[in-house]
Amino acid sequence: MELKVCQAPGELALERQGPLRRAFKAALVNPLANYLPAGFLRGLLKFGKSRLAQANWKDPGGWESMVISYDGQPTQIADKLLVSGGAISMALRNRRKLGACLIAQQIEQAAQSPVHVLCLGAGPGHIIMDAMVQAKGLSHATLVDLSSEAFEYGLSLARRQGLADRVHYIQADIRQVNDYMDNPPQVVKMLGICEYLTDQQVVSVASAAAALMPAGSPIIFNSLTHAHGNDRFFRRVFGLKMIHRSAGALCELMAQAGLGDFEVYTEPLRVYDVIVGRRR
Contact 219/211 with Cβ under 8 angstroms? Predict the structure, then answer.
């Protein structure tokens, strides 16, 4: 399968790690995190009152841990290491900026206005709200998540950004979203969920989204690679079990749902590829 490899927009201030820092982490930090006894590491994080660890123990990979990583300014020493300097937290902030920029571009390029954006596995909705603020065109968003826990926080975020009347939250299985849609989306956001879905689930969710999308309309999603170097740590200590795929492997699954014309944007840490596909 041919993928168009694209450069991230140059105006984005994306986080990077220098070669010395990468070498230090690969030689010392990552092996210690990955192979020290899990109970010992959990005890250190509890003693250090790590908010990121507590959020993941409550709900691995959930919206609260995402908010902590997005904020990027923790006060606890443990979280300064995990959030401020951790490769995956840095890459999450890169994915947020890159994803919002690409969605804003798709909103501006849409043929009709206002643009309806459908957000699957939305959580509070940071990325889509960032995109709506950036985009010159008018838009409104439907945010769908299986859990409603993040909706109150999301609505407060929307009010602060003047978007409260332009976002609508729905608690539902994203594979059954058609039951709740009054009009088709011109843009679909599927960031941050494929790494928690099996291959079959990816195809099922993408197929449900594609069934709603007009021909040629874009969907924005991401793959996750092992470049962060801490999968063993996240599995053993946080209980966070993510599925790593190359951009090509994920696009092959998406193609089974009727999507194509894939453009791949890799953030500087090479942990996430943010991909734009289109309904065929």
Answer: no
- Helix, strand or coil for residue 115? strand
Which parts of the chain register pLDDT below 50? Answer: none
pLDDT of residue 176: 82
pLDDT tens digit string along 53-64? 999 999 999 999
Contact partners, residue 239, CB within 8 Å, separation at least 6: 56, 57, 60
Give the distance between the most distant pair of CA atoms in the chain.
Answer: 56
- With contact defined as beta carbons under 8 Å apart, do 131 and 158 qualify? no
For the chain, what percentages of helix, strand and coil (3-state, to nearest 5) are there? 50, 15, 35
pTM: 0.95
DSSP string, 231-259: HHHIIIII--------HHHHHHHHHTTTE
